[in-house]
Amino acid sequence: MSPLWLAIMIAAVGCYLLKLAGVSMPESILNHPKVQRVAQLLPIAMLSALVAVELFDGGGRYSLDWRTLAGVAAGVVALLLRQGFLVVFLIAIAVTALLRLVT
Amino acid sequence: MEEPQLIAPLPERGAIVRAAAGIGLYAMAFGASFGAISIGSGLTVGQTMVLSLVMFTGASQFAFVGVAASGGSPFAAVPAAMLLGVRNAFYGVPISEILHPRGLPRLWTAHFVIDETTAMAITQCTPRARRYAFWATGLILFSLWQLGSLAGALVGRAVNPSDIGLDAAAPAVFLALLWPMLRRPEARWVALGGAVLALALVPIAPPGVPVLASAIVALLSGLLPTREAPEINDVEIDDRDPI
């Protein structure tokens, strides 16, 4: 089994075990307010970090493709206009693809 | 699937199925983008489908392929995916109260405890409608998520991902997921902190670590005393000041 396959299996089973723990653990642990706050903030910090890394990480050094950035910026405009996930996704890739085509 | 005691028709059934179908269609599009991005990140169609079938929690799947694509060890993607999956454990609290899963059924009930099924279940008015909403949403969403993932993966394999602008898809998807969570000022600070810390670590830390490190911002911010909650204390302090 390649390392990638092994990592996929561990992560997939691990995510399942988190769900199983949730329906099996005593409520008192998960109902603790501090624990809940950290759990709410975790995806916020990590998703934001993922956006930053996806945009500016060129394999251990900073790099930026302005066409990608323009596509994501167009996606932000769609979000500001209260568009749903699908519209944001399509606008971001369409703008990037178009800019790549013409430049 | 029909249980004998459910002879009386469930009045909310139509509305629940319509809402679940809407969520399912959205999930199919979301799954298609996952499939395409996963292939673009260097995973095979089989690996992509194992993630959709077994991991079955969107943000974690996107994070896994995102970190795995950043080079270095694929094992760096494991904690990133799992930390994003932590919230599903917390959905287990309301879901346990609704479904009371015991023994073997708990094993397959757990698989369906995700954002959408929890949101649909807890917003229903009767216990029966809650159970029905959980399973209707779970089964429809699971099926369409797989279909979408497979379609996206096959499209991703047929074309060059950067030609169709797919390199913008991952950050756009993460932003779209993040957006509704940013209503409170504290959330915006945590988001900013996570991004700044991750970016600062890019040139010095191994791939995958910058994203993981951002969890520290959530941990610190969550454990620090809250500023907005103890409003009563502020009033008390103001009262005490003159003395």
Keywords:
heterodimer, A: 103 residues, mainly alpha, 81% helix, 0% strand, extended, B: 243 residues, globular
Plain-language structure description:
- The complex is a heterodimer of chains A (103) and B (243).
- Chain A is built from five helices and no strands.
- With 103 residues, chain A is an all-alpha fold.
- Chain A is extended.
- The longest helix of chain A has 24 residues, at 33-56.
- Chain A has helices at residues 3-24, 27-30, 33-56, 66-80, 85-102.
- Helices cover 72% and strands 0% of the residues of chain B.
- Chain B is globular.
- At the A-B interface, helix 1, helix 3, helix 4 and helix 5 of A face helix 1, helix 2, helix 3, helix 4 and helix 5 of B.
Strand content of chain A: under 5%
Structural class of chain A: mainly alpha
C-alpha termini separation of chain A: 42 Å
Percent in strands of chain B: under 5%
Main sheet properties of chain B: none
Estimated helix fraction of chain A: over 70%
Give the quaternary arrangement of the chains: heterodimer
The radius of gyration over CA of chain A amounts to 19 Å
Alpha carbon gap, first and last residue of chain B? 69 Å
The helix/strand order of chain B is HHHHHHHHHHH
How many strands, what sense, and barrel or not for the largest sheet of chain A?
Answer: none
User: Looking at the structure, what is the overall shape of chain A?
Assistant: extended
Would you report the number of β strands of chain A?
Answer: 0
Compute the number of helices of chain B: 11
Indicate the radius of gyration of chain B in whole angstroms.
21 Å
Task: Count the beta strands of chain B.
Answer: 0
In terms of per-residue confidence, which ranges of chain B show pLDDT below 50 for 5 or more consecutive residues? Answer: 229-243
